[in-house]
Amino acid sequence: MLLDCDPGLDDAVAIACALRYADVVGVSTVGGNVALDRTTANALALCDILGAGDLPVHAGHDLPMSGSLEHRAQEFHGPGGTGSVALEPSARSATSNDAVSWIIDTVRAEEGLWLVATGPLTNVAHAIQTAPDIVGRVAGVSWMGGSSTVGNTTAAAEFNCWVDPEAADIVFRAGFEHLTMVGLNITQTVRLDRAWIDQLRAEIGGTAMEVFADMLDYYEARQRTISRASGAAVHDVLAVLYVTHPQVLAGIARPVEVILAKSAARGMTLVDQRPSRNPAPANANVIEWADNLAIEQLVRDALSP
Ligand code: RIB
Ligand code: CA
Predict the structure, then answer these.
(1) How many Cα atoms are found within 13 Å in the side-chain-facing hemisphere of 96?
(2) CA of 195 relative to ligand 2 center, distance in Å
(3) What is the CATH number of the domain that holds 174?
(4) What is the pLDDT of residues 217-270, one digit of tens each?
(5) Cα(235)–Cα(183) distance, rounded to whole angstroms?
(6) Taking a C-beta distance cutoff of 8 angstroms, is the pair 150, 200 a contact?
(7) 114-117 vs 2-5, strand pairing mode
(8) Using a 6 Å cutoff on CB, does residue 169 contact ligand 1?
(9) pLDDT in tens, 18-36
């Protein structure tokens, strides 16, 4: 798989899961939770910690296709994107600052490649616009984003879609044979509680991996404070596990429309769930079930020695 991400605390856990369970050809970074310089520095530092210090990391777009962004998500992810943890800066810099070209070249070169995206779809959309042929080349796209029901950044919009709805619209209209939307309504149900994190710390304390317990502690506390729901929702992990362990998620083909109008609904993924004799053509596999306990165990196994 190719992982496009905006680390970001749950992105960090998703990177660990991807490296444990998948053949990762490389990582591209996008501006999202924090700005591109931070998401890129975090991706490089996380690869070092995870023993993947030679994995290609390509920096992409900082801003969405609209060219502007009201705010990011530092309130959940901390000012630098890794909570209160200052990761050891990597000695290396990004492999390139042209993630879009790297995505295109890699899709064209690799057979059976999955594009897994855990941030705004800006890089993926630019790649599609530049090289439409990649749509028919990829094995599929698995995106943590959107929602069949509630939003988080607004009542209607989930953050990754809210940041760049134009990009999401391009992806949903591109005609991918296998586009899976792992929406907030499902990802927010997989929550690592304090006892779970304490148990993880007991297993990884004193090792380089202990930073994951520190990051999850921060993330859990912020979510509990802001969202009033206990437990750290590791949203992005589910987009990775859909590819590596498809049995832990289930979805249904649905028509999905991205709302672009500058309104209270901008950034909403409008999922048509009506039982209809002549439904609109489905353009996505929308996840509607998760095996929460199995996912928690897969995360623990990915973070433990
Ligand atoms: O809405 C959750 C998504 O927004 C996750 O990808 C999280 O990392 C943030 O980017
Ligand atoms: Ca993310």
Answers:
(1) 12
(2) 24
(3) 3.90.245.10
(4) 999 999 999 988 999 999 999 999 999 999 999 999 999 999 999 999 999 999
(5) 8
(6) no
(7) parallel
(8) no
(9) 999 999 999 999 999 999 9
